[in-house]
């Protein structure tokens, strides 16, 4: 009978994470060969298999023994933790076979059974730290010279890979992790998130979230995997998360923000997307690579450039992060709350600031929306405010849309519009909210159609709430109060907006909130939605 080698990765160590095929393979074998600790981990799966367990460093003799029994016609399971092809037994088994001139057609049968490797099991306990291009590096110099390992750490640091360090430290090997940290600090910020996972999915599991600067303050051992984030990895609520892309944006009222998923997950922001590919018979056809370089030639080129003391591109690195993360500064500008007239000077400065790479978009909201790639949003803010432009954040914030008060002639209520802007402009809300403010009963700037509408009339204010500003079921706001005294107006608006901020659901527009709660600051909701039933029509249809 032809023997068979089953090279089995049994995952991190818990039963739920062993694949079905791995369980079957162990059960259908005559022999199970593995490191003693691993045999103990899977002992509940064993029935009458013969066990050959050896010490940790006896991998080669384990592979030889496995091949010997298979050649005698036995079914032999060789077990590795995680995946057998990641610093496991799979390669060694093949090496022993190759030495003997084995051929698949005539020799013993070989089946490699995949398992969940530590990079995956440990990542899932940390959150989602891998997500993007990542690599594994084993710090064990047992089978690999330390000079090569160092070059790989250097290359991974330079390439901004998320890195999973396997075999980071043992009783005798303690220097490597210290050197690895020093190398990576040349390329990455000391604040780079780092996750330490010991014994994932085993009884003594331990998860620590730390940073590149502080990672050595915690216990790291042979059962730990160290996961080091890239330049955009962040911590959030005890989770380590690497976004699926690099671009960040600045907005006016927060510092740097990562792009929201819907903004980021566009083809142009997906570095790995095969835009040139097309699908034919279910197969992706890759576009031919333009440059005639093989992965190996690139690696050789990169390694040749290395010399421990310098960074990979030959420069002496002074700043810890060598790859700047491009940020987009996004905001809106207008000549003022009331003033609708741009000066030529303002237009010139706008054009200069936006430059070749930015965009300027005229919106329906009396504003120009700017998107400018920059690392220095403050310089841009200063230039624009110096020429008297009003800058507003965009997104889910409070915005005022005032009329021009008949070119400033009907000025009695301008003060109140500006006061509302001063108190509430840019306030973050569950969803964008626009307050229309019109300076006379003509209300020609359409205040009554906004989320909140204010119309000045005969020295007092009329208030409209809950306009549905867009869509085929658009409707004006409901008139809730007439003749509000000027002294009460701004406080009243502030209370309404703050109530919505606190109690509105995320993404709930103001008109929906009003309808749901039925009463806002004492104003009762009346359903004034048009009675005509319309089919929903999403954008673009
Ligand atoms: N074949 C294994 C790796 C073996 S090398 C795999 O694919 O996962 C041994 C190293 O793997 C350890 O030093 C540790 O860094 C990592 N490792 C393996 N199992 C682990 C676990 N359950 N939790 C954390 N790290 C683990």
Tell me about this structure.
This protein has 541 residues and is α/β, with parallel strands linked by helices. The chain contains 15 helices and 28 strands. The strands form 7 sheets. Strands 14, 15, 18, 19, 20 and 21 form a 6-stranded mixed beta sheet that branches. A 5-stranded parallel beta sheet has the order 3-2-4-1-5, with helices on both faces. It has a 5-stranded mixed beta sheet with strand order 7-8-11-9-10, sandwiched between helices. α3 (59-71) packs across α4 (90-99), α6 (146-158) runs parallel beside α7 (175-185) and α13 (414-424) packs parallel to α14. The longest helix is centred in the C-terminal third of the chain and has 18 residues, at 486-503. The structure holds S-adenosyl-L-homocysteine. S-adenosyl-L-homocysteine binds next to α5, β9 and β11.
Topology summary:
Blueprint: E1 4-9, H1 20-27, E2 31-35, H2 36-41, E3 50-54, H3 59-71, E4 75-80, H4 90-99, E5 109-113, H5 118-126, E6 127-128, E7 134-138, H6 146-158, E8 162-166, H7 175-185, E9 193-198, E10 206-211, E11 224-228, E12 234-236, E13 239-241, E14 248-250, E15 256-258, H8 261-264, E16 278-280, E17 283-285, H9 295-304, E18 327-334, H10 344-354, E19 359-362, E20 368-373, H11 377-386, E21 390-392, E22 398-402, H12 405-408, H13 414-424, E23 433-438, E24 452-457, E25 460-465, E26 478-484, H14 486-503, H15 510-517, E27 519-520, E28 523-524
Parallel strand pairs: 1-4, 1-5, 2-3, 2-4, 6-13, 7-8, 14-18, 22-23, 23-24
Antiparallel strand pairs: 8-11, 9-10, 9-11, 12-13, 14-15, 16-17, 18-20, 18-21, 19-20, 24-25, 25-26, 27-28
Bound molecules: S-adenosyl-L-homocysteine.
S-adenosyl-L-homocysteine binds next to helix 5, strand 9 and strand 11.
């Amino acid at each position: 009978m032809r023997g068979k080698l089953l090279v089995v990765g049994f995952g991190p160590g818990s039963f739920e994470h062993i694949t079905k095929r791995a369980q079957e393979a162990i059960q259908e074998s005559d022999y199970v060969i593995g490191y003693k600790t691993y045999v103990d981990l899977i002992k509940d799966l064993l029935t009458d298999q013969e066990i050959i367990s050896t010490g940790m460093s006896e991998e080669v003799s384990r592979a030889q023994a496995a091949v010997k029994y298979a050649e005698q016609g036995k079914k032999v399971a060789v077990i590795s933790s995680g995946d057998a092809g990641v610093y496991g037994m799979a390669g060694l088994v093949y090496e022993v076979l190759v030495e003997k001139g084995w051929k698949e057609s005539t020799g013993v049968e070989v089946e490699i059974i995949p398992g969940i490797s530590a990079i995956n099991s440990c990542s899932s306990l940390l959150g989602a730290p891998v997500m993007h291009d990542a690599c594994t590096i084993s710090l064990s110099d047992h089978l690999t010279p330390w000079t090569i390992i160092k070059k790989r750490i250097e290359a991974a640091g330079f390439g901004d890979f998320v890195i999973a360090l396997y075999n980071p430290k043992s009783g005798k090997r303690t220097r490597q992790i210290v050197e690895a940290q020093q190398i990576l600090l040349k390329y990455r910020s000391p604040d780079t998130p780092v996750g330490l996972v010991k014994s994932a999915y085993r009884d003594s599991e331990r998860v620590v979230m730390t940073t590149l600067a502080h990672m050595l303050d915690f216990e790291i051992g042979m059962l730990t995997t160290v996961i080091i984030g890239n330049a955009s990895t962040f911590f959030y609520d005890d989770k380590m998360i690497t976004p699926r892309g690099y671009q960040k944006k600045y907005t006016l009222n927060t510092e740097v923000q990562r792009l929201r998923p819907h903004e980021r997950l566009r083809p142009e922001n997906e570095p790995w997307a095969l835009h040139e590919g097309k699908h034919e018979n279910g197969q992706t056809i890759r576009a031919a690579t333009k440059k005639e370089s093989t992965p190996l030639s690139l690696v050789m080129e990169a390694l040749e450039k290395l010399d421990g003391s310098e960074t990979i591109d030959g420069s002496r690195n002074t700043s810890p992060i060598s790859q700047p993360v491009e940020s987009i500064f996004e905001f809106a500008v207008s000549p003022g709350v009331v003033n609708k007239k741009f000066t030529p000077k303002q237009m010139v400065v706008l054009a200069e600031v936006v430059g070749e790479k930015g965009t300027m978009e005229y919106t329906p909201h009396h504003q120009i929306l700017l998107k400018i790639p920059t690392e220095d949003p403050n310089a841009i803010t200063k230039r624009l405010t110096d020429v008297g432009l009003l800058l507003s954040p965009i997104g889910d914030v409070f915005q005022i849309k005032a009329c021009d008060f008949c070119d400033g002639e009907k000025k009695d209520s301008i003060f109140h519009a500006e006061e509302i802007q001063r108190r509430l402009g840019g306030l973050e809300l569950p969803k964008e909210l626009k307050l229309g403010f019109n300076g006379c009963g003509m209300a020609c700037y359409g205040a009554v159609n906004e989320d909140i509408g204010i119309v000045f009339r005969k020295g007092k204010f009329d208030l409209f709430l809950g306009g549905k500003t867009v869509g085929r079921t658009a409707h004006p706001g409901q008139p809730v109060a007439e003749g509000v005294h000027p002294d009460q107006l701004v406080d009243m608006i502030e209370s309404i907006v703050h109530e919505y901020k606190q109690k509105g659901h995320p993404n709930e527009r103001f008109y929906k909130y009003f309808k749901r709660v039925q009463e806002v600051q004492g104003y009762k909701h009346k359903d004034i939605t048009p009675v005509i039933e319309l089919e929903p029509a999403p954008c673009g249809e």
